[in-house]
Write a structure and sequence with these properties.
The structure holds 2 protein chains of 2 kinds. By secondary structure, chain A is mainly β. Chain A has one helix at 31-37; strands at 13-18, 21-26, 44-45, 52-53, 66-69, 72-76, 87-89. Chain A starts with 12 loop residues before the first strand and ends in a 19-residue tail after the last strand. In chain B, helix 1 (13-24) crosses helix 8, helix 2 crosses helix 5 (157-170) and helix 2 (59-83) packs across helix 8. Classes of the chains: A mainly beta, B alpha+beta.
Chain lengths: 108, 361
């Protein structure tokens, strides 16, 4: 569906986990671009209707490409660059909130 | 020059509700609206349909507020059936969070006063931390308590405004945008208005132009002493269910976003934003619902409340002209549409609403 017309494909690759499966994409790609190389039709479901959603504007405006990255929900895949060892998961609805007090950043 | 029987100046929450109510009675009505970039309280609203805390010092206002919230369920169904727009209205009861022991004690005194003046028509319950935790399981440990009232609810205010406009047009109303009113003068059979796009005549005139009422009302001998108070709102990304009830500080929309509000700033006619107020609202929200701190804010805005010196509405009537200002456009939308519009038709303000005239200042 997509092929790379930039020079990025000549870059060294980084590997990341996508829903538990290891994939290799050129360094400098965004997570959204990495998703597109996998011919994924969607990366999340809408929290309102449950309908599937995929990357759309690719420039941070539409919030359609939300995924969970390294345990944090609702990250904009098009605004985050891939990193070696990154753990990317597709997201169901509004995503999970942690109940672990250690991860609550706010002091109450 | 065009002519209309009833002319409403202002297409915001008051003007649209009154216009809807007039058109619904098959009265010929035109709404003149100004510009998208004007100060528009109706488009910056939080969306509470709220009774608790309103009218402790003015029983007529408490009654008018309760009257409107009683009308709201039927009003909401009527608008939804007519326009096909789901208002996301829910009368779930509402919570008022108190963030200190002092605030909790003050709250109790305030609601006791309100209940005493209501002849048993106002119900509420004070809640300690443990009781509040049962209603709102995500409550933070440092919140000492709050109050709860079954009268309260919330609505999506933008869908409400859209439905009022759509309903107005469905009932034969004539809506005209980008027509700021420059001058008004009385003429033999009513009023002549000079607008940016030509003149218009009306037999009956209703001023509901928000902050601009202060300028327009004196042109027809009425008083609208209103001033601007800025409120800001923050909106989080969509999150799983964190709140069961709307509250004074935050509410969760049907789509899952958390709306955070209730800042108050006196900054004149500046509807921008300030980091100071935003930080305070965000801190407060995270104190109430700690897990909110895991998520991001995706939108925010400032808007100007239309306030009077005592915070209560100001309703004026003289000749065939009326002028209405109120901060509670959403809560009062049902009463404005279904009750006030018939008083306008009958040319007589109910005795109870005489308490809102400007001679109290």
């Amino acid at each position: 569906m997509f092929h790379d017309i930039s020079h990025a494909s000549r870059q060294p690759c980084v590997s990341l986990l996508l829903d538990g499966k290891s994939i290799a994409v050129p360094a400098g790609y965004t997570v959204a671009a990495a998703l597109l190389t996998q011919h994924r039709r969607h990366n999340r479901t809408s929290p309102v209707s449950g309908a599937p959603r995929g990357p759309f504007c690719l420039m941070g405006g539409c919030f359609e490409c939300l995924v969970e990255i390294d345990g944090v929900s609702n990250r904009q895949a098009c605004m985050v660059e891939v990193r070696e060892g990154m753990n990317v998961c597709t997201q169901q609805g509004a995503g999970e909130l942690t109940t672990d007090p250690e991860t609550l950043s706010y002091e109450v | 020059m065009t002519c209309t029987d009833y002319l409403v100046v202002g297409g915001g929450m008051l003007g649209a509700a009154i216009g809807y109510g007039l058109a619904r009675q098959n009265l010929g009505c035109t709404i003149l609206d100004a510009h998208d970039r004007d100060f528009r309280a109706a488009r910056g609203n939080f969306g509470l349909v709220w009774v608790q805390s309103k009218g402790a010092d003015l029983a007529a206002y408490a009654r008018w507020t309760r009257c409107s919230t009683e009308l709201w369920p039927g009003f909401s169904s009527e608008l939804e059936e007519l326009t096909g727009i789901d208002l996301h209205y829910k009368r779930s009861g509402g919570v008022h969070f108190c963030l200190s022991d002092q605030a909790l004690a003050d709250r109790q005194a305030h609601l006791m006063k309100l209940a005493a003046a209501s002849d048993g028509a106002f119900s509420y319950r004070m809640l300690d931390h443990r009781e509040l935790l049962e209603l709102e399981p995500e409550l933070g440990p440092s919140v000492p308590g709050g109050s709860w009232s079954p009268h309260d609810g919330h609505v999506n205010p933008l869908y409400l405004l859209r439905a009022l406009h759509a309903g107005f047009i469905r009932h034969g109303g004539n809506y005209q945008a980008n027509r700021r009113v420059k001058t008004i003068e009385a003429c033999n059979d009513g009023y002549r208005l000079v607008t940016e796009q030509g003149e218009i005549r009306a037999r009956h005139l209703i001023l509901a132009a928000g902050l601009d009422n202060a300028r327009l009302a004196p042109m027809v001998g009425l008083k609208q002493p209103v001033y601007a108070q800025r409120g800001q709102i923050l909106v989080s990304e969509r999150v799983p269910k964190l709140l069961n009830h709307p509250s004074n500080y935050l509410r969760q929309t049907l789509e899952g976003t958390i709306q955070i509000g209730d800042s108050k700033e006196s900054v004149g006619l500046d509807d921008g934003q300030s980091v100071h107020a935003m930080a305070k609202m965000a801190r407060r929200a995270c104190q109430i619902i700690p897990r909110l701190s895991q998520r991001r804010i995706v939108r925010g805005w400032g808007a100007l409340r239309v306030l009077t010196a005592d915070g209560y509405p100001v309703y004026e009537h003289g000749g065939n002209a009326w002028a209405f200002s109120s901060h509670s456009g959403v809560t009062l939308a049902a009463a404005h549409a279904l009750k006030l519009s018939t008083m306008i038709r009958d040319q007589s303000l109910d005795a109870d609403l005489q308490a809102f005239t400007a001679n109290r200042f």
